[in-house]
Write a structure and sequence with these properties.
There is one protein chain. By secondary structure, the protein is α+β, with helices and mostly antiparallel strands. It is about 35% helix and about 15% strand. The protein has two helices and five strands, in the order βββββαα. The protein has helices spanning about 65-70, 80-115, and strands at about 1-5, 20, 30, 45-50, 55-60. A three-stranded antiparallel sheet has the order 2-1-3, with no helix packed on it. Strands 4-5 form a two-stranded antiparallel sheet. The longest helix has about 40 residues, at about 80-115. The N and C termini lie far apart (about 110 Å).
């Protein structure tokens, strides 16, 4: 059994037309037993063309050509993700304010304690 690979009238590879045939299968004009891979045996980037007919070779896009035809689109966060981010920033701000307020309350408590330690009188101040 062998795999047969087919191309159309524009020499474009038709993956859906791949088929497995007996070893004695006779190829049609637009078929080959050559798998669409590069010289190193790696797969090719679509669209893949056949150059040179049955005795030719498969040619795919280069990575540069593919990247040019399909530029990367920066992913935009969803509205929900943006709202969650904003809430996170607000929480961080509030937590910073709470820390500052806590420090201020502690300082006031120390100042009050110091001021009370100098006003000691006997019998509870009476």
């Amino acid at each position: 059994m062998k795999a047969v690979y087919t191309w159309d009238s524009n020499n474009l590879y038709i993956p859906s037309a791949n088929k497995i045939v007996p070893d004695d299968y006779q190829l049609s004009g637009n078929e080959t037993f050559d798998e669409p891979k590069d010289a190193q045996g790696h797969g090719l980037i679509m669209p893949i063309k056949r150059s040179g007919g049955q005795t030719g070779q498969w040619v795919g896009l280069t990575q540069e050509e593919y990247s040019k035809a399909h530029p990367a689109v920066p992913e935009q966060p969803s509205a929900g993700a943006q709202a969650m981010n904003e809430l996170g920033l607000q929480v961080a701000t509030v937590m910073g304010q709470i820390k500052e307020l806590s420090t201020s309350v502690n300082e006031l408590g120390l100042q009050f304690a110091k001021s009370q330690s100098g006003n000691k009188t006997e019998n509870g101040g009476n």
